[in-house]
Amino acid sequence: MEKRKGILTGLSLAMAASILVGCGTDPKEPPIAPTITDSDAVALGALIRLIWSAVTDATEYRVYSDGTLVESTTNTQADIDSTNVSSIVGVSALGEGGESGQAQEDLSLTETTSLDVWSIQDPDSTHPSFVRFNSDGSAVAVPCSQSNTAHFFIGGVAGSLQFRSIQNMTNPCNDNTNVDPFFNDTGGIDYAGSDFAPPSGYNDPQGITDQGVYYIWVDNAPFGTWETTDFYAKVKVTAVSGLMTTLQIGYQKEGGLRWLK
Questions:
Q1: pTM to 2 decimal places
Q2: Strands (DSSP E) found in 57-159
């Protein structure tokens, strides 16, 4: 009996030692992901500034653009510039236990894939000539009776159609005094490649060509200067038939940001 007791005691000591060793080697958990508290367009809309909450035990933060690491920082904010134009930006926390998941900000466009709009010269009152951007960024064609809610319209005659700011509307339709859009020909850059709107060079009116691609600066009051209350979009004229145009439009919902990816 004494021998058995000694064996049991030895086994108990071995198990205790194993437990103690195991406790000492348990891996630490990664920190929790940060929370993005603000995102703002800065530098005339060329950069997006992310601000996030501090994370306990984080030694640094990693900033991503479409999944690519673009910056490591110990600060709780970062500016992502136009060399990293993307649809998704994010930030993670790095600690002794590894890297957290990402907190992300969605900068993708609201796409309206096909929108038929007729010149205001079209005599058929059922053919809408005005385009309105809804709060979600979607574009809809509206008639003269709703022109005071619109952002721009199609003017001109067949073979010489134009984008026009709603500020240039005259009776019998009404203008929208809160917005004054301008347009910029991309100069041959295709729709997919037109991912960064320029800061200047906008026109009103802007001539339209079939398959042409254009940037839109939705200039909200106060007019004539860049503000974070302005918005940017791009439009492709996918078809022209007489007085009718078919438009594909991508709208950036982040105020003032010129990224259009």
A1: 0.88
A2: 60-65, 68-73, 77-80, 88-95, 98-99, 103-106, 110-118, 130-133, 139-142, 152-157
